[in-house]
Amino acid sequence: MSALIINSGRCSHGRCFFCGYGRIRGAPPSVENVNECFSRFFSQLTEDEVKVFGSGSFFDEKQIPEASRRTFISECRRLNVKRITLESRPQFITKEVLSEFSGFDLSVAMGLESSDDVLLKKLQKGYTRAEFQAAAKVVHEAHFKVRAYLLVNLPFVSDIAASLDASVEYALAHSDSVVLINLLPHVSAPLLKMWLSGEWNFLSKEEFRKVTSKWASNPRVSLDEETFKFNPSFPDDIKESLKGVGEWYLTHPHFEVWQDYLIRWYVPPKDRILLFLPCANRKPYSHSITHQNIIRALEGVGRGRFHEVMLSNAGVIPREFEDRYPFESYDWDERNETPAIKKRYIEVTAQRIRDYLRAHKTHYVKVVCFLKYDSESYMALKSTCQDLGITLTNLLKRETYEKIKDAPRPLQEPRALDDLGEGLRWCLQNST
After folding, report:
1. Is 179 helix (H, G, I), strand (E, B) or coil?
2. I need a surface site. Which of 68, 188, 195, 319 has the fewest CB within 10 A?
3. Average pLDDT for residues 278-296, to the nearest whole number?
4. 253-264 and 339-360 are packed helices; what angle lies between their axes, rounded to 10 degrees?
C-alpha cells in the first residue's frame, strides 16, 4: 500500500473541536499544484493499492479540483491500481462522483468519531450520524466500501469504554471496516486548551490498548494508537513568561504537561548510557559554555552512546527537546531561592526523576551524571536512585569538586572537564 498525504486547501468545515489538521490552510488548490503533487506520487508508485489523506475531503472540488480528480483516476487506471481509499465528509459523496471510480475496489473513509449525536454536536463535527448513514448508503449502493473512523477517549465523555462500544457497534452496522484512533492533542484545536488546563488528557499507548482490547481481534476493526508523531506543542497565544522562582515556576502547568508526556508517551533511545546534566542560564542549553564543553567531551568519545538529559526546575528534559517551549523560555535565578524553595525543588525534582526512571530505566545500560554535589538536582537524583536500587555514578569526582566548588562556574573548570572525559571513557569500557 502506498499513501499520499496531500496538502491542498483547507477542510470545508475546519471547526471540529479536536482537529488541528482542518485548520491548516495549505497551498492554493489549483489544478497545476494538485496535479504536480499527483505526478510526483505516481512517478514512484510500485504497488496496486493507494490511500490518500488530505485533511478534508477528496471529493470537495474546492480542495481537489474536478480536473485533478479525473487526472488521479486516469493515472490509477494507467498504472493498474486496484484498490483505492479516499477520505470525505458525507456532503461531498454523490453517486455521480462515485461512478467515476467504476472498476476500482474503492473504500470511502469518513470521520464518524462517535455515534452519539449529542456528543457530535459538542465536538462541532458539522454532521449527524443520520447524515453519515445516508452517505454510507450511497457508497454501498455504488458497490463500494465504507471505512469509518472513530476517536477513542473523546472529551465530554464520562464512560470511555461504554461510549466506544456503542459507537463501534453502530459503525460496524453501517461500514465495512472501522479504525479506532487514539485521540491526541492537535495544535490549534480547542481540545489542546482542555489538555493544558487539565480538563482532558490523552491515553498512553498502553491505556489505549486496554480500552480497545475488546475489539482488537475483530477482523473488521483496526487500531491506530499514534496517528501522527506527537509531542507537546503550544500555540503562541498561550505561551507564558516563565521567568521567576517559586512554586508557580516549579510546577507550572506547561512543565507538568511535558513531564506527563515524557512518562506516558515518550520512548527514549535504546541501549544508551543515561547522562544527567545540569541546566544552564543560556537557552537552549547547548548554546551555553558549560554545555558546549560537555558536548565536546562527548564527541571525543562517541556522543551517540549517551542520552543527555537535563535536570532543572522545568523538570526532566531530554536534549532533543531543549529548544522547545517552555524549556527554551524559562529563567530560574538560584540567587532568589529560599531554604523552603530549595526543599520544594528537591521534592518535585525527585518525583519527576522517579517517574522517568520507573518508566524508562530498561532502555538504559547505565545511569551517570555530571552535577555539582551540593546542587538540589544532584540531591534529588542521588536519593531517587538509592530508593530505586539504581547505581548512580557522578563523573565529577568528589575530591575534584571540593577543590573547585568556590569557583564562579565549577563545571567549566579544566579539572572538572578532565574528570568528565575520564568518566565518559570509563562508562564505555564498563558498559555492555
Report:
1. strand
2. 188
3. 97
4. 20
Percent of the chain with pLDDT over 70: 98
**Parent domain of 194:** 2-224
* Domains in the chain, number: 2
Give the mean pLDDT of 377-389: 98
Residue 367 lies in a domain: yes
- Spatial separation of the C-alpha atoms in residues 27 and 157, rounded to whole Å: 36
Helix axes 129-141, 160-174, angle to 10 degrees: 30
Among 200, 224, 248, residue at a domain's last position: 224
Whether pLDDT at 289 is above 60: yes
The pLDDT > 90 percentage for the chain reads 87
Residue 412: DSSP 8-state = G
CATH number at residue 413: 3.40.50.10630
Cβ atoms 263, 363 nearer than 8 A: no
420 phi and psi, to 5 degrees? -60, -50
- What ranges in 248-397 are assigned the alpha helix state H? 253-264, 289-301, 339-360, 376-388
Question: Could you tell me which residues come within 8 angstroms of residue 270 by beta carbon, excluding any fewer than 6 positions away?
Answer: 363
Q: What is the C-alpha separation between 254 and 92, in angstroms, rounded?
A: 40
Res. 383 pLDDT band, cuts 50 70 90: very high
Say if pTM beats, i.e. exceeds, 0.70.
yes
Q: Which residues pair with 369 in a beta bridge?
A: 276, 394
8, exposed or middle or buried, with CB in 10 Å at 0-12, 13-18, 19+? Answer: buried
Residue 19 and residue 187: Cα distance in Å, rounded?
Answer: 8
> Cα separations (Å) of 167 from 136, 155, 318?
15, 15, 39
